[in-house]
Write a structure and sequence with these properties.
In the C-terminal section; belongs to the enoyl-CoA hydratase/isomerase family. The chain contains 13 helices and 9 strands. With 392 residues, the chain is α/β, with parallel strands linked by helices. The chain binds ligand LGGBLMCM. Ligand LGGBLMCM binds at residues 158-159, 161, 196-202, 218, 221-222, 245-247, 273, 275, 278, 385, 391-392.
Length: 392
């Protein structure tokens, strides 16, 4: 039980067994004519990571069992205790396969993945963050009018926590906004929160490759996500309508203006979560507010009020909540009437000098975080949140 991820899986609920993302790619196999080769099996394992839709716990347990049988043979693990629900379900699924030969398990795994590609709605393989054909969003509302593209985080019941889908959708929306005919882009939140940051249940979808693979995939995703903000070519404005936590705060250092309601707060509790700063904040916050104030936020997790964040230079201006929308939109509409090319070029001049540095900082922060996510400190913090022992 030394592995923290094993403990996490034990303590979290079965719905957290889910496998994340992306499109299933058709496996071109004549299933009756041949037995699955090791290569087919490895391809299938990779396809599972690309599933766009969650196939459900039953299928995931089957996949888990067949994977274990194909790679390790019959189940030889001690049976988990009765309260250890997730591991018991996994053990049962594997044990049920009895002495099924490894080759048959491998074939069955490949067949199952292949069948998922036809039963689950699939699309061609899409690199994370690239434009997809569909313009519909599950986790965002995106509108474009008066020269302004507005991206609204839209999971109000979850305080706009950023799940895997939302990371991808934000990247997609930013890429679309960078090419549309709007002059400026605005990011805001629906409901009482701006965003509660990374959805902590993101950490519970452990792929077959284990927590190391999960951490690696998350670091790749985070790096790409933050990279989109570094490279965004038009004026990017945050309308912070309420409390902001974690990554929703750190990336503010990459925005061109940040307008906040006086209800907003800014909280980066990375040490509490066993994590470390991201979103280039280890660089931008120091530049914006100096090392002493940046350390208070990023190391000691001091939560700032909107007024304090404005005094530190993180926020451009604070508005009373009662007039926030009206006043900021009046201002944004005026900005949007400015010559768009001039705004874009001015941003380029300001940003280009820093771009290389920002990408280097982003890469370093992601690599440090990849290690932090494997730490006991981080796993325990996530487990505490999921079991609701504490709120920040
Ligand atoms: C893969 C890239 C990783 C990038 C690295 C990013 C790091 C970060 O962003 S670190 C910051 C992570 N965020 C948090 O630690 C915040 C956790 N949430 C809370 O502490 C609280 O929920 C709160 C203070 C934000 C709000 O508290 P409260 O007003 O009491 O509301 P509830 O806790 O009841 O929340 C309502 C509902 O929303 C769910 N929820 C809120 N935040 C998150 C979250 N970050 N992740 C997942 N779920 C979240 C909460 O669980 C409730 O759901 P239900 O119980 O289903 O109603």
């Amino acid at each position: 039980m030394a592995n923290p991820a094993w403990r996490l899986a034990q303590r979290s609920c079965p719905s957290h067994l889910q496998v994340v993302s992306f499109p299933v790619v058709q496996l071109h196999m004549n299933r009756t004519a041949m037995r699955a080769s090791q290569k087919d099996f490895e391809n299938a394992v990779n396809q599972v990571k690309l599933l766009k839709k969650d196939p459900g716990n039953e299928v995931k347990l089957k996949l888990y069992a067949l994977y274990k049988q194909a790679t390790e043979g019959p189940c030889d693990m001690p049976k988990p205790g009765v309260f250890d629900l997730i591991n018991k379900a996994k053990w049962d699924a594997w044990n049920t396969l009895g002495t099924l030969p490894k080759e048959t398990a491998r074939q069955n795994y490949v067949d199952l993945v292949s069948s998922l590609s036809s039963s689950l709605e699939s699309s061609s393989q899409v690199e994370p963050g690239t434009d997809r054909k569909s313009t519909a969003y599950e986790t965002l509302m995106v509108t474009s009018e008066d020269g302004i593209t507005k991206i609204t985080l839209n999971r109000p019941a979850k305080k706009n926590a950023i799940n895997i889908e939302m990371y991808h959708e934000i990247m997609r929306a930013l890429k679309a906004a960078s090419k549309d005919d709007s002059s400026i882009t605005v990011l805001t939140g629906n409901g009482d929160y701006y965003s509660s940051g990374n959805d902590l249940t993101n950490f519970t979808d452990i792929p077959p490759g284990g927590v190391e693979e999960k951490a690696k995939n998350s670091a790749i995703l985070l790096r790409e996500f933050v990279g989109c903000f570094i490279d965004f070519p038009k004026p990017l404005i945050a309308m912070v309508n309420g409390p902001a936590v974690g990554i929703s705060v750190t990336i503010l250092g990459l925005f061109d203006a940040v307008y906040a309601s006086d209800r907003a707060t800014f909280h980066t509790p990375f040490s509490h979560l066993g994590q470390s700063p991201e979103g280039c904040s280890s660089y931008t916050f120091l530049k914006i507010m100096g090392p002493a104030k940046a350390t208070e936020m990023l190391v000691f997790g001091k939560k700032l009020t909107a007024g304090e964040a404005c005094a530190q230079g993180l926020v451009t201006e604070v508005f009373p909540d009662s007039t926030f929308q009206k006043e900021v939109w009046t201002r944004l509409k005026a900005f949007a009437k400015l010559p768009p090319n001039a705004m874009r070029i001015s941003k380029e001049v300001i940003r280009n000098r820093e771009k290389e540095k920002l990408h280097a900082v982003n890469a370093e922060e992601c690599s440090v975080l990849q290690e932090r996510w494997l730490s006991d400190e981080c796993m325990n913090a996530v487990v505490n949140f999921l079991s609701r022992k504490s709120n920040l």
